[in-house]
Amino acid sequence: MPRRVDAARRVWLAITERAGYLRRAVLGAGSERDELLLGAKTVVAAMAAWVIARYLLPPAVSTFAPFTALVALQATVYRSVRDCLQYALAMAAGATLAATLAAVAGVHVWTFGLLTLIALCVGRIRRFGQQGPQVAIVGFFAFSSGQGQIDYIGHLVASVGIGASCGLAAHLALAPARHTGHRQQAVADLYKTMAQRLGDLADTLEANDPDRSHLRQWRRDWHRLSAECERIRHTIETEMENGRMNPRRTSSGSGEALPRAREAITVAERGMDHLRSMTRTLDYALDSGELGNLPVGFRPRFSAVLRAVATATEQIGRASPADPDLLSARIDEAAAELDRVQQQEGTAPEASPAVQALQGTLLTDAGRLLADLRSGLRGLASTREDWSGHGARSVT
C-alpha cells in the first residue's frame, strides 16, 4: 500500500510539474514558451516534409526528409543553418563513398566493411561537427538499399533538400524570440543577491548575538549561486548566438548588452570567491568564539566597508548600466573606507594572534573583492568600447 501511495504521489507531482510548465509557457515569454514553440514547429515541419517526400520521391528515401527537418530545427537560426550544412556535407560524403565503392568493387561483405571503416574515419573530420556519424549512416543506406546507384543518391539528395527547406522555412516564418532583457535582468538579480549577502554579513558582524544557522545556510547557498552563474552564462551565450541570422529586429543596444552581461558574470564569479571566503571565516570565528573578541570599533567600521562594497556591487549588475565614473567613485569610496580601517587597526592596542588573524583575513578578502570589482569595471568599459568600435567599423 505505501508503494502505491508513493507511486501515485510521484505521478501527481509529475503532472503538476508539467501543468506548471505549460502554464508558464502560455502566460509569459521565456525558455518554456521557446521550447514549446520549437516543438510545435518541429512537428509541423516534419509532417510537411514527410508528406511532400512521400508524394514526390520513392518510399525508400522519404524518411530522410522528416529526419532532416528535425536537424534543421535547433534552438537558434544560426545553429539550424550550421547543422543543416554539416548534415548536407556528411550526406554527400557518405553517398559519394557508397557510390564509389559500389561502382569500383561491387556490393559485397568486404566492401561494406571497407565502407564502414572509411566512413568512420571521414566522420571524425571536425568540419562535420556533431553530424559526423551521418557519413556512415547515409553510406549504409546508399550502399545497401540503393546499391550505390546514382538514381537512389539523387532521390536521397532531394529528400534531404525537402527536409532542410521545411525546417528552415518554419524557423523563418516564426523565428526564435529575443530575450536580451531577460538575460540582463538575470545578471542584475544575481548582483542584487550578492549585494544583499554583503549587507547580511555586515549585520552579522554588528549583531550581539549572530545567527549561526543563517551563516551556514549562506555557505550552502554559494554552491547554488555558482551553478546559477554557469546557467546564466550559458543562456547569455545562447542568446548571443540567437542574434546571428535571426530575422527578428532587436532592441537598440542589444549587441552591447549581451557581451557586457557575459563580462559581468565573470566579475561576479571572481567576487563570489571572496564572499565565500568571508562567510566561511565568520562561520569559523563564530564557532570558536573569536568573533566576540574583535575590537569594538572594528566591527562597525568593517561593516561600513561591506555596505559600501554592496552598493557598488549592485550598481555594477544593473540592467541599465550606470555611469562608469560614478561606479569608479563608489569603489574608490569603499577602498578609502577600507584603508581607514586598516590604518586604525594598525594603531590599535595589541590584540591576540587569533584576533589579528581574523581581522587580517577579513580585510584581505575585502581588499581582493574591491580589486576584482575595479578590474571588472575596466573590463566592462573595454567591452563597451570594443563593441562600439566594431559597430563603427561595420558601418563604414
Descriptive account of the structure:
Mean pLDDT is 80; it is low at 386-396. This protein has helices spanning 2-27, 31-56, 59-62, 64-72, 77-105, 109-123, 133-145, 150-173, 180-206, 212-242, 254-288, 298-316, 324-346, 353-395. Helix 2 runs antiparallel to helix 8, helix 5 packs antiparallel against helix 6 (109-123) and helix 13 (324-346) runs antiparallel to helix 14. It has 14 helices and no strands. The protein has 396 residues and is mainly alpha-helical.
Summarize the structure.
This protein has 396 residues and is mostly helical. The protein is built from 14 helices and no strands.
List keywords for this structure.
396 residues; mainly alpha
The coarse silhouette is elongated
Q: Whole-Å distance between the termini?
A: 75 Å
Helix content: over 70%
pLDDT < 50 stretches: 386-396
- Give the helices and strands as they follow along the chain: HHHHHHHHHHHHHH
